[in-house]
Amino acid sequence: MAVASALIGAAATIGGSLLKGSGANAAAELQAEGNAQAIAEQRRQFDRVQQLLAPYAQGGTGAFSQLLALAGAAPQQTNWQAYAQSNPALMQAFNAQRINPYGGGMQDLATFAQQWQQRNDPRADLSQFQTGGMDAQQQAISQFERSPMFQALARQGEEGILQNASATGGLRGGNVQGALGQFRPALLNQQIQQQLSTLSGIAGLGQNAAAGVGNAGMQSGNNISALLQDTGQARGYGALGSSAALGGGLSSLGDILGGALGGSGPISAATVANLTPAAASTILANPSIF
Asked: What is the pLDDT of residue 2?
């Protein structure tokens, strides 16, 4: 009877240890699930911030490019499409392509032209196809001068000069012609300076938007990293708790079985742990063997 009681106690001890271990693992998984939801929310919020600030960042990028062009500080860039269209052999190769020989399938003309030049015409003079610096500035000024806004201002100003001269009887005077000759250049300079200021403001908005996205990304990254670390620790503690509970149960089992065998001393936890499931089942089902 003593042995049977001991075995019942041993079974209860092992069962309780397994329940403790299962509870530790379950708690760890619940914490990991909560952290996963928090990570998903962090990413969702960052995507939302990025979406909200995207128009400002894009507008700022465009304004900054125009600002560089008007200021004569635009970097040199190669017009690869113009280079390709001036090279019959390149265009023939581009039109005949079925599978991109450089890998990746069909390409746009600019990319194809750049790779073709590097492979087949590395010493080509590309200066005539490059834009930037003073060339880009001249192009930007010409485009601004042809803009509807400048044309409207210039037309209104010139009509005002002519109407004033007509009212005072000096329509054919040299002063009128001089005023007309000076008006457009002065207006263009004034409007360019105003445009530079406007573009600077828009570029600043874009810079702030980009910085906001960057800060949000860093904050989200830090929060997600902390949550991932917390998840790892929770699962680690769960595994340790499960092992500790099972180890404690096996140690108690050894004490119980050792006492039931006549006080010859506790059976070690390692000995019990090494029992096969069949052996353990046999012991529990046949206490008379003791």
From this structure: 47
> What whole-number distance in Å separates Cα of residue 217 and Cα of residue 15?
48
Q: Is 119 exposed, middle or buried (0-12, 13-18, 19+ CB in 10 A)?
A: exposed
pTM for the predicted model, two decimal places:
0.59
Are 25 and 239 a contacting pair, CB within 8 Å?
yes
Q: Domain count of the chain?
A: 2
Using DSSP bridges, classify how beta strands 130-131 and 77-78 pair: parallel, antiparallel or unpaired: antiparallel
pLDDT in tens, 61-113: 999 999 999 988 888 888 899 999 999 999 998 888 755 555 555 678 899 99
Q: Tell whether 249 and 285 lie within a shared domain.
A: yes
Domain that holds residue 138: 2-76+133-145+190-289
